[in-house]
Amino acid sequence: MRLWPRSLLGQTLLAVAIALLVAQAVSAVLLFRGTENRREAAVFNAATINLLVDPERRIRRMERAMARMADGGDLARLRERPIRPRMSDTNPLLDGEANMPVRAGKLRELLSAQGVDPANLVVTIRRAGDDPVLQRRAERNPRFAREPGWADRTLLVAGMQRAEGGTWQVARVPIPARETRVIGGIIAQTLVLFAILLGVLYVALRRITRPLAALTKRTVQFARTQDASDPLPPAGPHDISQLIAAHNAMESRITAMLDEKDVMLGAIGHDLKTPLAALRVRIESVEDDGQRAKMAASIEDITRSLDDILALARIGRAQADAEAAQLGALAEAVVEEFEDMGQPVTLTQSERIVLPVHVTWLRRALRNLIANAVRYAGAAEVALLRDGSAVILRVDDQGPGIPAARIDAMLEPFQRGEASRNRATGGAGLGLTLARAIAEQHGGELVLQNRDGGGLRAEIRLPGS
């Protein structure tokens, strides 16, 4: 599955979304750490205040306040302010609890800043339901005991011994619950930023990518038809519109050069074929049959070479659009042409495959491949088959093949086979070049490879859709 989009619009939007997500994640971490630091500072400040207050005076004041309350403390009091400090003759740490030196060091720094240097200081985190002081309060105060969730609250318990061997002053500070609204706010903020930023970017980028997509489509179409009669109107930002205008000008120049080439080739063809036709008539007066036959063969070779050159030059300048054709029938018709001439050509495999093609050109490409196989190997086997999404027109022979180092060169114009492939036969070395050009005109390719059992395999591979 492709996770990274292929289009410029998709890649830009995804990159911005990832960058925004990373930025918001960093912001969330920093904000969360800041909130935690403030929460911890508030707890330690409250513990410091409780430990600095004169314990006897604080106890008397809290007892008078408790006497005025009908029901004593409740969960609201536990949530809103620290529990009154206690005096204890023993270390406040319970069995299984350990002192937290980092927190104790932080609390000692706060006490030292107020001029207090305790002999011993212990700090621990404790569940409220496990604290003996709150357990006794719950036993004495049924209303407090019925408050939901009081036992699951978390306490910071700090014990300070001002002098070695003296009484422990114990402070219990409820640790406030984490603010869940902070994370929710960040998520909501992220969603809003995504909607606004990506929405604006989408509108802006579409103004850029839509003309680019149209230009790409136009380029593909021009490469296929070389028709510049309907230029693409410039659109989008100034740079893009200039690019489209430059492309239209390039199309016009290319079309003009191709038209000049066609006119020139037409004139060359006419100027050459006319004297060739005259020569063909004149050689009839030659009395020597052998000489007359050689002269006629030479004229035919020149004519065929001229036809191949003109055909190669006109590939891709088809005036008509591709038409749906049954390729099995096309292959069978070409094979029958060679059978009618007594050539050993067989159709070994065929399927009913319909594709839009230029029938005349594709028939000529297949005919060239079969003619090469017959010329150099004496026989040919033709097959039409599918290979995944590709459609293959295959021609196999039992000839000597082509050296691997020469296969690419054999697809170039005017390349002939080496002596082992019967150099004495006719041809100008344009058959494979024409077949390759026709395959590429249809969006496919011509593939040559030597067979394991000997011989050459030539395949016209066309896209299946």
From TrEMBL:
Enzyme Commission number: 2.7.13.3
One Pfam family linked to the record: HATPase_c
UniProt subcellular location: Cell inner membrane
Superkingdom of origin organism: Bacteria
Organism: Parerythrobacter jejuensis
Transmembrane segments: 182-205
Protein name per the record: histidine kinase
Lineage, opening ranks: Bacteria, Pseudomonadati, Pseudomonadota, Alphaproteobacteria, Sphingomonadales
GO CC, one annotated term: plasma membrane
Topology of this chain in the membrane: Multi-pass membrane protein
Keyword annotations of the record: ATP-binding, Cell inner membrane, Cell membrane, Kinase, Membrane, Nucleotide-binding, Phosphoprotein, Transferase, Transmembrane, Transmembrane helix, Two-component regulatory system
Domain HAMP as annotated: residue spans: 206-259
GO molecular function: ATP binding; phosphorelay sensor kinase activity
The Histidine kinase domain, residue ranges: 267-465
Main location: membrane
